[in-house]
Design goal:
Blueprint (H helix, E strand, L loop, with lengths): L11 H19 L6 H4 L4 E6 L3 H11 L7 E8 L2 H14 L11 E3 L3 H7 L4 E4 L6 H10 L3 E4 L7 H17 L3 E3 L7 H11 L6 E10 L13 H7 L5 H4 L2 H4 L2 H11 L3 E9 L14 E8 L4 E8 L6 E8 L2 E6 L5 E5 L5 E3 L5 H15 L6 H20 L3 E2 H6 L37
Parallel strand pairs: 1-2, 1-4, 2-3, 4-5, 5-6, 7-10
Antiparallel strand pairs: 7-11, 8-9, 8-15, 9-10, 11-12, 12-13, 13-14
This protein binds nicotinamide-adenine-dinucleotide (NAD).
Length: 442
Amino acid sequence: MKSPSATPNESPRRSFLKASAITGGALLADLDIARFAHAAGSDEVKIALVGCGGRGTGAAANSLGNTTHGNIRLIARADAFRDRLDSSCKTLETQFKQKVDVSEAGKFVGLDAYKGVLESEADTVLLVTPPGFRPMMFEAAVKAGKNVFMEKPVAVDAPGYRRVLAANAEAKRKGLVVAVGHHLRHATNHRNVIRLIHDGLIGELQYTRSYFNTSGIWNRARKDGMTEMQYQIHNWYHFIWLSGDHIVEQHVHGIDVCNWIAQGHPVEAVGMGGRQVRAERGVGEIFDHHAVQYTYANGVRSFSECRQIPKCWPSFSHHAHGSKGYVSFEGGNDNVTIFLKGKEPQRLKGGPDGHQTEWDDLLAGLRARQPYNEVDWAADSTMSALLGRMATYSGRLVTWDDAVKSELTYAPGQLAWDAEPKSRPGPDGIYPCAIPGVTKAF
Ligand SMILES: NC(=O)c1ccc[n+]([C@@H]2O[C@H](COP(=O)([O-])OP(=O)(O)OC[C@H]3O[C@@H](n4cnc5c(N)ncnc54)[C@H](O)[C@@H]3O)[C@@H](O)[C@H]2O)c1
């Protein structure tokens, strides 16, 4: 079983010091020192945002409002749609007047807008578009020599996962800082208690459980005159080539925590799921529920479910069970409760928001000029979610090795506003979805 690399269960600030002490000059010798030129002259970090939606605007605000590196400026922004760019600009320019460059020259619109950002003087880019674009944009950002913060998931299919790993090898060679938006890895109680679990808090790990059960997700209506491509990118959550389905887009948070606890990725999965409620006309092709049983190399199992159906049991939580007791983590607020046999439950109140501390840690990394790369375990968590989707779509037992080799992609051959996506509604206006036992899913 692979052990997770970098920052899984300790403060990155501590990791930098450790890495420095252990490997010192050897690591630094491999770095492209030019990456840190800003630190030699001005220590200003110049950031640029690709994908100016809800999380992109939030991540930019977290970066500008960080507590570890005050000298930071947002110099460029890109979005596929002008209205999304404008509303994000308005929010950030109001909130962080002194830290945002407002010139039109730093604003780019369209499917290729990210290229403008990569040509800018930004040293760090935030990739926060729908995840279907992540492998392409991460690869381009690494090629351009940028440090990267990218949101989870990092891919929506196995070819994308492999592309991200290949680009990351180049990022490591260049000494780039790369962070992935798994904020729970930077949430104080998650981090401290999972370290204790690894040290034996609950005895031998027996199994984990994980839930991302909600009442549903937004659905953006088709606007007059939109091409099919414009509509799908506008309403991206509901198309596999853009979101990966909610087991990948959303539940990857809990799957990642279970991998973190198990110190590796699953080796096989079985599951079931379907689209029982979300079948009304005009809504896309993803399932509304998935239930997966993952098995790790040492036989530990993870029971994992996600649902987007109203009026059902809601829970965003994950739980680790061992021979001496169990721990429950509330994913939304970092509340953690430890239940040890024969003892009173110990409740830990939520710590600071991981969306902020992930930026504090990343910027401390930039400032410390130490290797900081979260991609290996984050990519494996994305791949674990994809493995689960392959199991629920196909209805078959799917092994990690087969899943990783999959060549199946849902992406269109060409990316242009007038190009045809592969997924099309039927004559009844309904997009087809996977049928277990029938559909080829990997
Ligand atoms: N870590 C977290 O807690 C968390 C929370 C929410 C979302 N996310 C992740 O953040 C990402 C974005 O989600 P969101 O909720 O902000 O969605 P959103 O729809 O609000 O924003 C996405 C933005 O990307 C733009 N976009 C689409 N295609 C583009 C392209 N080719 N080039 C440039 N811009 C493009 C859209 O126009 C939109 O403004 C997703 O990967 C999602 O999983 C993470």
